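Worked Example 4.2. Consider the chain below.
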Amino acid sequence: MTLKTRLSQLQSQAGGRQKAPTLSHQPNALKIPHRVGQPNRDSSHRPHSDSRLAEQLEGRLIAEGVIQIEKQIPLNSKLGAMQLSELQTAPQLPGDDRVTLKNYYLDTETTGLSGGSGTLAFLIGYAWMERSAICLRQLLITRFSAETKMLEKIALGLETAERLVSYNGKSYDLPLLISRFRISSRKQQFDRLPHLDLLHPTRRLFRHHWPNCRLATLEQRLLGYHRVGDLPGSEAPAAWFDYLQRGSEQKLLKVVEHNQNDIVSLVAAHTELARITRDPDRYDLDLYSLARWIGKFDREQACDLLRKRVEQADERSKGYLAHLLQKSGDWQGATQLWYQLAQNRCPEALEKLAKYHEHVSKDLEAARHYCRQLPDCQARTHRLRRLQRKADLRLSPAYQFTVLQS
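Applying the procedure from the previous section yields the following structure tokens:
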């Protein structure tokens, strides 16, 4: 009996071929799930929910699923202990060639914190300075399909930007936005814009003095600003999905407020960090790192910075000051610092003194004295042998005759 015959017999025993009911005909059937993170397009979410949300945010619907919020924060107010009127002076960090750049301060809230092609920014906020106010603009989408329209608005809004300023934006926000523009086949100008990531100077100055360099830590330590009732950024993705799936607005309103606070803090932090580089005595910071940062662009300024604080400077700072003095030709000032450091057996200072006495003062005995104090290594052995050869050469009759003739 063939397989086909056997199947026919089994079908006839079961009462003939019956059409299997489809899922739509089964009242208790499970619905096919959507992709994770995608809201059910047949959910109870309706356009009028966006209108209500826009009204609560004091914004307006500029396209289907896109809410734009605009605010002006007057400079006669305060952020923590900082008077916002101080923002009227354009901030200038070491290496800034121009202080008149049109800075746009950017921050995003996304559907995930790990990045990747499946992550998108559902809220993008940016601000710029005017004469008497911080101008803040945010674009919030309430559905996945609105992302392209939001990106188009962002591209238009940043057309006048001359530099982007962010906090950890080089590692997260900008790569994410660039990838979303590419996926949407839209042109973006982020590649052409200079980008200042304030996380980097913050780490440079405070990583050895603070428990961490998160924006919240910067706010508390530099700006005297402590947030009350703030929704953590880690809860932003869940708040957005909660609105998409159930129309819950409460936490999403907090996300928008959190984004506003981040951006205003970013503007204030830029000014405060610039002021710190000019007057570092106000804070407990890494003086050596600040001097190295300034020294990349202005050695004289870095030298003045350390000279005025040499009594409080640590070993690294004194060593760098000696290096700057050496570069400027001030051997007396450089050797004075090296002698101080050599008392604590600083290897760098010992090596510098050995080189100085070998090549500059020509005092080979002093050079050998400091060379012997160096850690035992191949370079030390090689230097001692060379010094011994030079000393032996000085004792030779030919060398002494040459000295007498000169």
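The radius of gyration is 34 Å. The CA atoms of residues 207 and 301 lie 23 Å apart. Compare this with Example 4.1 before moving on.
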